[in-house]
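Chain particulars:
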Amino acid sequence: MIFPALYNGPINYFARLVRQQEIILEQYDSYSKQTFRNRCIIMGPNGVVTLSIPVKRESGIKTHLRDIRIDYDTNWNKIHWQSLVASYASSPFFEYMVDEINPFYQKRFEFLIDLNLQLIEQTLGMMGLNIPVVCSEVFTPISSEHDPRHFIHPKKEQAVADPGFLPLEYHQVFSDRLGFRSNLSILDLIFNEGPDALSYLQRCLRT
């Protein structure tokens, strides 16, 4: 199975990654706007927050994901980190995980695919997993509605997009005021559940 290369991807994405013996990320797909390749969704003190990485690309020209460069004309990495701190500094496991994630917001990655791949490796490692992560060598077309490149998308309704996902509740910071929000970025699960994150991922798929 081929997976999209996502930035701090949602929980239903990682629920599938943790079941793999090897993870192959598609790098030859045509980059498109408003996907999880350059954005993630977290829960802030005032509600849902979308964090987007600005990228460099020529308008009207199809560009492979592997060739998409990150745009540092704005301090997006500082803004993202400040948002993560504001959202999760009071979560149970933030202080234990902070040193594992912070370096990704200090280093300047040239290509989006490199940032995403290394973040995925780090996130799996934080859950005690050592699953090899590699990039595809050729483009594999989407041939099934069960392909994660098809249904893991911020614009799709969860029930329609991924009926196999079980949005089991876990403790979230601010849930007492804002209620529970399912299928946020994997960081929300890790900062709130810590070592229990893997167990949650193993239980939140129907198949």
